[in-house]
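Q: Got a minute? One more chain.
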Amino acid sequence: MTDKFDVIVIGGGPAGYHAAIRAAQLGLKTAVIDAFVGKDGKAALGGTCLNVGCIPSKALLDSSKQFYNIAHNLPVHGITVENAKVDLGTFIGRKDKIVKQFTGGVAQLFKANKIVSYFGKGKLLKGNNVEITGNDGAKQTISATNVVLASGSVPIELPFARFDNKYIIDNAGALDITEVPKRMGVIGAGVIGLELGSVWRRLGAEVTVIEALPDFLGVADADIAKVALKEFGKLGLDIKLGAKLSRAEVKGSEVHLTYNDKDSDHDLVVDKLLVAVGRRAYTDGLLADDVGVKIDDRGRIEVDEHCHTGVDGVWAVGDAVRGPMLAHKGFEEGMAVAEWIAGKSGHVNYDSIPWVIYTEPEIAWAGKTEKQLKDEGIPYRSGSFPFAAIGRAVAMNEAIGQVKMLAHAETDRILGVHMVGPGVSELIAECVVAMEFKGSSEDLARIVHAHPTLSEAVHEAALAVDKRAIHKGN
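A: Always. Here it is, folded:
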């Protein structure tokens, strides 16, 4: 007999587990199907984000920052440490322990909310039936009134640089390197390439980043990207822009690369090659041919503004649908869908989703860039303020970067905020709140910010929109 649920979620990653927990909170009988297997060979909830993405990469970023600071930051404070070394076993082991803690935490939340877990691959059949192929190969079918597709994404693989996760690695492979490579190549100067490239550079690897696009971080505001590029150069990341990889061949224990730019072809030999050219929606084997769910030309599940597929009772969220591939975007879509299913008012504002790159310095933004405003013919005013004039940043020896605020020229409503500098992954939240409440630069300019704090850079940038910043010339 087929088990019947109110909601079945296919995928236990950020979008999926948020959808499941919220559905269960709303009194809906809920099941989750997930196929992820952890390093220990056991089923692990949390998807890419908790297992091989957001959380483990931040653990390594923080550990590598501690090591880097010993040589490059502590001496300024009068603190000297001789012959500091990294024990990679402990370095990676700490990351694994954190992953285990959080994936186990999701399992406990499922138990507390009476969510039924099935470990295996889910396939949507007609009539909202779902076939589960267990990790042991056994099959069973369950059904639900509503099915939420949250199958996530996978790394894009280059046909001439196939992953072996020994020499040519993806994001997961870059989290488990057992020896600091002398030379590392990174294909793609996006979030993953910059973050993981930074980890191994701080530990001593010579890192060369090959980016096909001519502009650095084209999705970010140009002024912020310019500052970031300069600082990454100081870190020692050798970033080649307008460079396209044409060959990657493993020879012995090395990877031999050929890339070309506007001038000529170039050869490069590295010990590890991280391919980070983006991710694609993972829908392989997810849908039976007759279910009626449509896939767009980029492989994503087509949905409307409420994440509904157009097939009765079938929804889709997270990386598998349109919009940025960000865990927190998936969080909100998952919870919103659960609320729509329960007849409540779900909500996701795509215009104020924050973006963060956890490099050193950090990069964060929300809303429109200056280029987007110009292209759309929207009148605006701009104000910026450097961390070099912020007392707290100077005291921390992290007086790098700036905050830039863009407001409508007529209404003063905040249209975008862009930051590069210390702690901006946290500072951006204040601006997102202001944007959600349709706040103006004047609102932030008149709110008292504690002194001395990094948040004063946001305050001064808001003042600068009206050319009245206190601690710099206007």
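A: The mean pLDDT is 97.
Q: Perfect, thanks.
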